[in-house]
Design goal:
The structure is a single chain. With about 375 residues, the protein is α+β, with helices and mostly antiparallel strands. About 25% of the residues lie in helices and about 15% in strands. It has one domain: Beta-lactamase (3-Layer(aba) Sandwich). The protein has 9 helices and 14 strands. The protein is globular and about 60 Å long.
Length: about 375
């Protein structure tokens, strides 16, 4: 067992213990060396990491630059959360379920005062008007949304004609859809009359002291903000998102997300049954890779054994037991949150350079050991 110094981030820790991994002795020096080597190999300009052990953050660090000027990436630098937002949203939804305000299996149409297609195509939400004539919208539930089994593409603009349509019966298979997440947000806001951004702020960010996290841009973020780098090495300015989008508008820091990840592993904020429902293998995943979404199902012998949709996360079975993960990605962002239930252990990686994703499997497994996570499902381009 190796002692690892927790950084002074108001995490309430002075010294914690980072257990030995299946791959050998884990020390802060080893992690630092491996990260620097990985960044040099991939060309990634910035990377931040948090390690959770027994539901506590024991290591939080950042390396590299936050912008083209070379200003250092720090543990309180504002970074784009991307689709990690979806996991935090699912956590919020489960609180609403506990309170009886939402039912995972009640059609979302039942919460809306008008038929969904009558809302038309709304720039802030979705192309609901495109669904006129296909009554399957009446059957979509929150469970379908959170297991990515609505039957839609990621977004309507992914279609050749940019029109939203069903590709299969809701609930029948996994196919990643941000549009589905937006539908659930729409039902919460229009049906329940809630401000989702305010709910997530109160229920999650304020609760866990995530002072540098928000669903919309805040002017004070500009003081320590991460821009990004694309696969070709070109720089991209941080997108100052002015609308709450449950599919991915969250800005956060590695220190803040470590607080949420640790609290989730401790079971805070949800009943045990609700947390178990999130991590339950709800729907077997039958695709060979997550993207492109809506690809045909793989032959049974070529599917990833034990891989399934949870609620807002993906679950898997490995040599250390059950685990779960959630990725986040855009042209200049690479994020992942990987956890093992045994030992309440996690690794969080946030990068403002998409090239860092190539190093994620090695970095995660150098700390957690062999997890059994199907990396080539998450990143189909890996060798």
């Amino acid at each position: 067992m190796i002692k690892a110094k927790a950084l002074a981030l108001g995490l309430g820790l002075a010294v914690a213990v980072m257990p030995q991994s299946a791959e050998g002795r884990v020390t802060t020096e080893k992690v630092d060396s491996e990260v620097r080597t990985a960044m040099a190999r991939t060309g990634a300009r910035g990377l931040a990491m948090a390690v959770i052990e027994d539901g506590k953050p024991v290591f939080v660090q950042a390396w590299g630059a936050r912008n083209a000027a070379g200003d250092p990436l720090e543990t309180d630098t504002i970074m784009y959360g991307a689709s990690l937002t979806k996991a935090v949203f699912a956590y919020t939804v489960m609180q609403l379920v506990e309170e009886g305000r939402l039912d995972l299996d009640r059609p979302l149409a039942a919460y809306l005062p008008r038929p969904l297609p009558e809302y038309g195509n709304l720039d802030a939400y979705g192309a609901w008007g495109d669904l006129a004539g296909d009554e399957r919208w009446r059957r979509v539930t929150a469970r379908h949304v959170l297991t990515h089994s609505v039957g839609w593409p990621n977004f309507s603009w992914d279609e050749p004609d940019r029109k939203l349509r069903f590709h299969f019966e809701p609930g029948s298979r996994y196919a990643y859809s941000g549009a589905g997440i937006i539908l659930l947000q729409f039902a919460i806001e229009k049906g329940l009359g809630l401000d989702l951004g305010a709910e997530m702020q109160r229920r999650v960010f304020d609760r866990f002291g995530m002072k540098n996290t928000s669903m919309v841009w805040r002017p004070d973020f500009a003081r320590n903000l991460a821009d990004g780098w694309k696969a070709d090495g070109s720089a991209e300015p941080h997108d100052e998102r002015g609308r709450v989008r449950a599919a991915g508008s969250m800005d956060t820091t590695v220190a803040d997300f470590a607080r949420f990840a640790a609290a989730f592993m401790r079971g805070e904020g949800l009943k045990r049954s609700s947390r178990a429902e999130m991590l339950k293998a709800q729907l077997p995943i039958t695709s060979a890779a997550q993207f492109p979404t809506l690809v045909p199902e793989a032959e049974p012998g070529k599917r990833w054994k034990g891989l399934a949709a949870g609620l807002g996360v993906v679950t898997f079975a490995g040599p250390q037991g059950r685990g779960f993960f959630k990725g986040g990605h855009n042209d200049s962002t690479g994020n992942i949150w990987v956890c093992l239930e045994r030992g309440r252990r996690c690794v969080v990686l946030l990068s403002n350079d998409v090239r860092a994703e190539a190093a994620f499997p090695g970095l995660v497994e150098s700390i957690l050991g062999d997890t059994g996570l199907p990396w080539r499902w998450e990143y189909s381009w890996l060798p």
